[in-house]
């Protein structure tokens, strides 16, 4: 059985940036394998095309064989370990620099039934974290994935902006949603 990927929405608003990431996550794992929890009813329409949407928090769901991804965990997710989980839970949190341990504060400490794992000690965006976990589920080890520690996005001929998060690479290029690049150029 394919695992379900769960994004617990934890931002105070459904920012456009969140919607772009959630859409990208749906492309990575497929809408049939994706749940969004803790979504206010007024925002259902913005994300319902990308997966199953719940106003209920994952904290209230009694899920068995669940793994919560938190960079503060002391244990790394391994392929053999990943195959035993039915659910992978992520914080729907935008990156912050330096990280504020929001996953631990707002999610991990309430999830007594879940096992907690990291995918390294650096911060990924939620969509990149989902990509990495989906690769580990396919049997790839974290060590076998190439990463950049930070990426620069060119805004125009003169300006560029830096995203201080870890990004997986494919053929030496960061895997990042094209829509996010467009969004960054526009704003
Ligand atoms: C942008 S990160 C949020 C990190 C946030 N700044 C914090 O302090 O917790 C969004 C989500 O991606 C997942 N994530 C990101 N990097 C991770 C890592 N190195 N190990 C495990 N999970 C990670 C977590 O589920 C996290 O809630």
Compressed to H and E, one letter per element, the order equals EHEHEEHEHEHEEEEEH
Q: How many individual helices?
A: 6
* Class from secondary-structure proportions: alpha/beta
Query: Which residue ranges are poorly predicted, with pLDDT under 50 across at least 5 consecutive positions?
Result: none
What are the distinct ligands in this entry? S-adenosylmethionine
CATH class identity: Alpha Beta
Largest beta sheet: strand ordering: 3-2-1-5-4-6
* Beta strand %: 15-25%
Please identify, by name, the CATH architecture.
Answer: 3-Layer(aba) Sandwich
Domain unit count? 1
Helix content: 25-40%
Oligomer: single chain
Distance between the termini: 41 Å
Number of strands: 11
How would the global form be characterised? globular
Q: Can you give the mean pLDDT? A: 96
- Summarize the biggest pleated sheet: 6 strands, parallel
Radius of gyration, whole Å: 16 Å
CATH topology: Alpha/beta knot
Notes on the protein architecture:
The protein has 187 residues and is of the alpha/beta class. The protein has a single domain, classed as Alpha/beta knot (3-Layer(aba) Sandwich), CATH 3.40.1280.30. Helix content is 26%, strand content 22%. The chain is built from 6 helices and 11 strands. The chain has a 6-stranded parallel beta sheet with strand order 3-2-1-5-4-6, with helices on one face. Strands 7-10-11 form a 3-stranded antiparallel beta sheet, with helices on one face. Strands 8-9 form a two-stranded antiparallel ribbon. Bound molecules: S-adenosylmethionine (SAM).
